[in-house]
Amino acid sequence: MSRLLGIRIKNYRALANVKIGQVQYARGEPLPPLACFIGPNGSGKSTLLDAFGFIADCLLEGVEAACDKPLRGGFDRLRTQGAKGPIEFEIFFDLGDPARPIVYELHVDKVKSVPAVTLETLRQRRVGETRGKPYYFLKLRKGQGKVWAGAAVAVKRESKDAERVNLADGNRLGITTLGNLSQHPRIVQFRTYVEQWYLSYFVPEAARALPAVGAQRYLDRQGSNVGNVLQYIQRQHADQFSKLLKQLTTSIPGLKKITPEPSKDGRLLLKFDEAGYVDPFYQQSMSDGTLKMLAYSVLLTDPEPRPFIGIEEPENGLYIKLVEHLAAQLRSHATSKSNPTQVLVTTHSPYFVDALSPEQVWVIKKNPRGHADVVRVADIPKVKELVDGGLPLGSLWYSNHLDERSTQ
Ligand SMILES: Nc1ncnc2c1ncn2[C@@H]1O[C@H](COP(=O)(O)OP(=O)(O)OP(=O)(O)O)[C@@H](O)[C@H]1O
Ligand SMILES: [Mg+2]
Fold it and tell me: Does residue 220 sit within a domain?
């Protein structure tokens, strides 16, 4: 199973230079299956999750389109104010071989006033090696460079078996182009991994729309096709569907049943049966929190789960008792033996954080230069002892115990 070990980000808005998890080859502590980011308003939490969205958008739509998404507003607004160099990302991940993690590095800069990929590399240890430095199997500068083919190249020297690459379009990533070619299975695997990331930008209004009838496999980012995915689960995975209903009906008081139902004009209605009422309600009448819980439940009962999910402030609109329950649900999903999904969340809720351990939480704060500093709670002096002594992490946060800077 693929897993994100760590990320280094430079010059991406307030994230002028941050490192989270394992950011040295096969050294350091990897990100846990559930990682949560807290911190004051404007500290860079959403920016961190959006960094993953940005990389995925670069892959799917090209660098320029990724920069110009309405929420990002173009390259000049994305690069850390005052910074001169490229926006840089370095992702450490494991595609099922922990001794040989893979490192993907991407630099985006302006070339002749247009955003373009200026550096892109993929590195990994050679087959059979459990020690030593990683070797390049993709190395491109401004679209020019080399790629080493195969899944398990045991080359003696880097130059062997290399193929020249010359990408004419500086807007496209090398992994987009080469990830279509069967002679580059590792690149295909990485491309597929990034394509499967799910960043939730759930909008209750979008979930109230009436989509056309038809089962759909994947939930979109805003949750506008939640009914279609529910229909898919109902048809293809009846067991999962009943499990999902059971979870929801226990979480939301009065809710008895949800049924996807086609209307006469070919729209998909979601019928909500509630205690005390003869007639059902449809999605337009349902509350924000109910729709949000439905979307999360659909996401978490995915029969073929995503390897990575990012969720912003999942507590918004949820009843406080549900928040801790949701945190526990996300944690058990992230650590499930059969189908683990790595989950990254941002939150303002101490109730959410109460369900987590110091190894699962990071504090993001701005330093006097306006740049984000990121500290893992487990590295803040005394916090672990207090938690071990029985104090919940959320209460420690609320009582300013997470404000101290790590001495490491
Ligand atoms: N180009 C940039 N360079 C430096 N800092 C930037 C840049 N663009 C935005 N910022 C800073 O990033 C902040 C927004 O960060 P972000 O939205 O990630 O905060 P957040 O932690 O999610 O806050 P909230 O809790 O309010 O959602 C802005 O308020 C601004 O201070
Ligand atoms: Mg935010």
Answer: yes
